[in-house]
Design brief:
binds magnesium ion, globular, Rossmann fold, 10 strands, 2 domains, Branched-chain amino acid ABC transporter ATP-binding protein/permease, binds adenosine-5'-diphosphate, 4-stranded antiparallel sheet, 6-stranded mixed sheet
Length: 253
């Protein structure tokens, strides 16, 4: 996508679980080369919104458009194939494989049905291609010095960067990050912020669910605030920080 193009367009999306409206007619968009923060107190509906965008959950009403096409209603695998990648709050990796192997395997699994067939059917050139791709993406997140370390020996910060590298292997246009700074040390958060800024400079669009307000205020271009499933406000980091409604939602004042 060209800079400024509409990449993600969430339009009046609603998700009802029985009597509970977890996401109540939410609308917002993400443009190419933008980092948008999605914040709000626990239970606000952020994770549900992620699941609606990625097709993990079906929506009740509304629609999600990705690069101009309606993707709501498509299977999550198809939405991923079109260029929506995500990381999870809890890192999933194989601890006794190397960093490089973990990313290569993740890249391979994305296009296939199961881990077992993935392991059995890899031919040599395909394996080499995946390893080169994985090394390239690990370099983008600054982990080129750790390719052959066991993933199980990584500190939390590098684990999160590994996850991001794996997500990047599908060549996505949109990256959804679910609390990437949770449990990170200050230095690790700074490294993460640097990676996110670098990806943005390369044209990546990012939707960031994050509780660490310092990171959110530091790296985002635009912030959407949810509360009890509703769209409370949106604006620049400065506008959100100054909003009495946001202060009330967070601090109860
Ligand atoms: P957040 O990520 O902002 O903390 P969630 O999207 O996880 O919020 O949850 C929003 C609301 O929806 C909460 O009240 C939660 O209990 C409810 N909820 C989430 N998933 C389900 C589900 N599968 N079934 C029923 N209720 C759910
Ligand atoms: Mg959540």
């Amino acid at each position: 996508p060209a800079p400024g193009d509409l990449v993600l367009d969430v339009r009046a999306v609603r998700k009802q679980f029985g009597g509970l409206i977890a996401v109540n007619d939410i609308s917002f968009s993400v443009r190419a080369g933008q980092i948008v923060g999605l914040i709000g107190p626990n239970g606000a509906g952020k994770s549900t919104t992620f699941n609606l965008i990625t097709g993990v959950l079906g929506l009740t009403t509304g629609e999600v458009r990705f690069r101009g096409d309606v993707v709501s209603g498509l299977p999550s695998r198809e939405i991923a194939r079109r260029g929506v990648a995500r990381t999870f709050q809890h890192v999933k990796m194989i601890p006794d494989m190397t960093v490089l192997e973990n990313v290569a395997l993740g890249a391979h699994l994305r296009g296939h049905r199961g881990a077992l067939s993935a392991m059995l059917r890899l031919d040599r050139p395909e394996e080499q291609r995946l390893l080169r791709e994985a090394a390239h993406q690990l370099q983008r997140v600054g982990m080129e010095g750790s390719l052959h370390e066991l993933a199980g020996n990584l500190a939390m910060g590098p684990q999160r960067l590994l996850e991001i590298a794996r997500a990047l292997c599908s060549d996505p246009a949109l990256l959804l990050l679910d609390e990437p700074a949770a449990g990170l040390r200050h230095k690790e958060k700074q490294a993460l912020a640097g990676v996110l800024r670098q990806l943005r400079a390369e044209g990546m669009s990012i939707l960031l669910v994050e509780h660490d307000m310092d990171l959110v205020m530091d790296v985002t271009d635009h912030i959407v605030v949810m509360e009890f499933g509703t769209h409370l406000m949106e604006g620049t980091p400065a506008e959100v920080q100054q909003s009495p409604a946001v202060r009330a939602a967070y601090l109860g004042t």
